[in-house]
Design goal:
This protein is α+β, with helices and mostly antiparallel strands. Helices cover 67% and strands 13% of the residues. It is built from 5 helices and 2 strands. Strand 1 and strand 2 form a beta hairpin.
Length: 127
Amino acid sequence: MTNRSSGKFTKNMDIILKAFKIIESKTKENPVQVLIKAIERASPREEVTTIEYCGAKYPQAVDTSPSRRISLTLRLLVHGSYDKSFNKKTKIEEALANEIILASNASGDSFVMMKKNEMEKSANSAR
């Protein structure tokens, strides 16, 4: 591992640790438990894939595997917090903490919950 990649890793860990401190101060709960609750509530159960049959492509609803549910939820958490902090006064740590708290409360204001509802709605229509 080079110095360049280890520096990026420590910077990312600092962001996560600061976000956990913000979560703990706002909710008075264990931040890891809040993150787990956010992942449980915001992970999509179904998604849409494309099936090709006789040259035609059809959308098909499929169940999402547990590992994909977790990775997709974490990716959406980061993406949503980045969108809320890019070129704005909000720091990335605060945006990440707010996104995790909103997702753990299953709030409609959360980027992750909006994407989850959108994915499940499209999967429902592809049945």
